[in-house]
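Lab meeting notes turned into a lecture example. A postdoc, R.K., suggested we walk through two folding results consecutively so the class can see how the record format repeats. The first protein's sequence and structure tokens come next.
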Amino acid sequence: MAQEINRGGEQLLPEIRFKSEDFVPHSFFPLILELRPSKILMEFYAPRIMVGRSSGADFRLPSLCVSRMHCILNWSEQGWLLRDLDSKNGTYVNGNPITTKRIEELDEIKIGTFFFVVKKAEAEFQLFKAIQEYKRAG
């Protein structure tokens, strides 16, 4: 779902949110990626995100440089892990090819011809945790 963000009368770039109907782990927090150079923010509220060119991918990147099932983002107790799925052109973090890598704030991810920067939204993360605790409390 795309929506325009408007803060203080200032028109900002669209924000795209990917939500999950799946069970969300207790310590989970959303992944926020910024597409470069457009600076479009994408928020992922699912603990597992399949990235690829296939229509079956959770996050579809329509380019022949991207494999059908290119890589996967998984939430774990250690944080977000990015794993390449033996893609033809590889998956890169901070310019280095990876097989599996924990991603952190400001890491640069390259998938095919697409470049992303990992963003941190501490306030949103704290709010998200508070909402989850409230839901668990009943």
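The second example is placed directly after the first for contrast:
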Amino acid sequence: MKTKIAFICEEMNHFLVRSMVTELRESGYDVDVYPMSVNAYSFISSKHGIFIIYLDGFSSDSEKFLGSLDIVMGDKKKERRLYLIGTDENLRQANACIEQTLVTHAFRRPINMESVLKELSIINPSYSYDGSLKIADSTVQDSSRKTLLIVDDDDIYLRTIENWFTDEYNVYTAASVTSALSLLKKVHTDLILLDYEMPLLSGLDFLRILRSEPATEKIPIIFLTAKDDKEIILEILKEGPTGYLLKTTAPILLKHNIKNFFEGKELWWKDE
């Protein structure tokens, strides 16, 4: 039987929330998503063994909600685990509302889902705020080179474009948005080359997730798309990426554009 999770947040349709819930479900968890505005007692059931609270901001409603969880989580007859996700300030505010001994673990934003999944797999975890964010082993990078992250679900294209840039840059690849988000916690990235059309979470979803987090909001993003469609291009540009390039662009021109970007020059796609 799958472990049942109650995922509680302010904005149920937030892109980052959708990403986390998708990865939890893909990892075998049965996840119910609830708004933080509801009374805790209205959705708590004996089937919920894990509670994850995503703190996006903090309001009087948040304080009341978190305060009501003390009674629920303190029920000695139920084996329940409580996890918090938020900025340092969010977590400090939450700790003032919840007895810390009831909190299994706290994760700092921006969140690393690999750390979350690893922590959820521990049978008897202990809460430690100072150790809440598990930093992965450092990935070796050549400090004299710029670093590219290429995100595309087409493995053949991903490997092809990787080969085009490895002579000049540190290159990392990810075949999904969730993999890319995990990788960004491990390596410094100077530029992301991003596919537009991907399953589950699209390139635009990924862009919005990055822009919603202080640690990633300023990372430059250039879309690589096979869609030479005016409406799609306008949709991309509306979100304010660094630029977009077609996948049909010749390798020499694509490399030239990336070089221009790092030299502070205009990309050829921009209208004069």
